[in-house]
Amino acid sequence: ILNYDIMARFRRRTCIILLLFILFICSIMMALKTLRPDRAGFGDPFGLGLLPELQQRIVLLDNKQNSLNRVQGDTVTRVSNLHSIAVNTMKASMPPVNKLEEELASPNYNFHIFYYSWFGNPQFDGKYIHWNHPLLPHWDPKIANNYPKGRHNPPEDIGANFYPELGSYSSKDPSVIEAHMKQMRSASTGVIVLSWYPPGMADENGEPTDDLVPVILDYAHKYNLKVTFHIEPYKDRDDRSMYHNVKYIIDKYGGHPAFYRHKTSTGRFLPMFYVYDSYVTMPEIWANLLTVSGSQTIRNTPYDALFIALLVEERHKHDIHRSGFDGMYTYFATNGFSYGSSHHNWASLKAFCDSNNLMFIPSVGPGYIDTSIRPWNNHNTRNRVNGKYYETAFSAALLVRPEVISITSFNEWHEGTQIEKAVPKRTGQVVYLDYKPHKPNVYLELTQKWSEKYRKEQEQWLM
């Protein structure tokens, strides 16, 4: 009997230890998912419903799946309404101030950061713009019926999971623009990649803002920052319209001291244009614009530039090369969302670019959460892990020794990729995420830290 009791206790103790060990392993796996979810078995890592144009291309080319309704334009940048009278009062050019140079970190022109001027509020715009973003339905009606509908109701209820320190601001408020420039400069970024639609055009939730560009250029110049353009997939974008719009940008803004030009390996200084959703347009159309023999070629003209395409799928790298682009970027801040945004694919992409004389620009981000506008999309959420996710992305980027690193984003609040200052906030119905236990500027400080690390490592690469 004594031996039986001893054996029973031993078996119970063994079962408890085994159960605790299994729970420990499960917790480790879940923690790793937040940092590197690339191919882990936690559901579909790609979430291609956010890229319906890509799915439509797959249907046409591969006939493998049903086409989905387009969720337009919300994965990146949108713009706000402008009033010309207010803008005209803001256009005085401001020279750099020596005191600013002493107080702020030096700009790193190899750190490019995506910036959005799509926000509006009643004080400056007569209404809220983008803060009142609608809740986007899932493309599957059966799933959509399980989630709320409607719009957000600012200023307490905004279309974001975090809440900005500046509140539900207007992108044309001079004090906001200046605060943004100061924050970006304090983070030691150097180039603002400004979302851009042609004059009179905007996304479905915003209003035209091309008139704001001179103001942003002036304030950027005050902080010794440069501005380049993130060209959105505007209506009827093709080789002809792109030629005219690139010409428009260079003619109108190319003479401004804050207009960015990139020094190439041949010593030329060329404008740079990021082209979002470039894969929607056929390579043959891009080749008309971007190859020397193209019918609408921009090469070897006064409007020649560096054109950087968005890579989502692995096969896009061949299309990008065939199209005549000068490089590729990955944009998405969700490790594992797409082939391009998955950190473990960056080495092979960099090798492909090196062998084909292309630039590879990885995009790093602090995390991702867009359930305030896509409540059904929590499987693409990437926890910030108090800054560890951001640092993991930077570490992965530095491993491939890129010429430029892009940051997604300064203020894409809808998708929770912002490094702009955010503060804790609680309302009757909403508890916003925040950066605690750190201060509101923690992601600016982390960016500055990695900017300096990049500079030091780049010196070693070039030796």
UniProtKB/TrEMBL annotation:
PANTHER family: ENDO-ALPHA-1,2-MANNOSIDASE (PTHR13572), GLYCOPROTEIN ENDO-ALPHA-1,2-MANNOSIDASE (PTHR13572:SF1). Pfam families: Glyco_hydro_99. The keyword Membrane applies. It is found in: Golgi apparatus membrane. GO terms for cellular component: Golgi membrane. InterPro entries: Glyco_Hydrolase_99 (IPR026071). It catalyses: N-{alpha-Glc-(1->3)-alpha-Man-(1->2)-alpha-Man-(1->2)-alpha-Man-(1->3)-[alpha-Man-(1->2)-alpha-Man-(1->3)-[alpha-Man-(1->2)-alpha-Man-(1->6)]-alpha-Man-(1->6)]-beta-Man-(1->4)-beta-GlcNAc-(1->4)-beta-GlcNAc}-L-asparaginyl-[protein] + H2O = alpha-D-glucosyl-(1->3)-D-mannopyranose + N(4)-{alpha-D-Man-(1->2)-alpha-D-Man-(1->3)-[alpha-D-Man-(1->2)-alpha-D-Man-(1->3)-[alpha-D-Man-(1->2)-alpha-D-Man-(1->6)]-alpha-D-Man-(1->6)]-beta-D-Man-(1->4)-beta-D-GlaNAc-(1->4)-beta-D-GlcNAc}-L-asparaginyl-[protein] (N-glucan mannose isomer 8A1,2,3B1,2). The gene is MANEA. This is Glycoprotein endo-alpha-1,2-mannosidase. It comes from the Eukaryota. Keywords: Golgi apparatus, Hydrolase, Membrane, Signal-anchor, Transmembrane, Transmembrane helix. It comes from Eudyptes sclateri. It is an enzyme of class 3 (hydrolase). Its EC number is 3.2.1.130. It is a single-pass type II membrane protein. CDD domains: GH99 (cd11574). GO terms for molecular function: glycoprotein endo-alpha-1,2-mannosidase activity. Belongs to the glycosyl hydrolase 99 family.
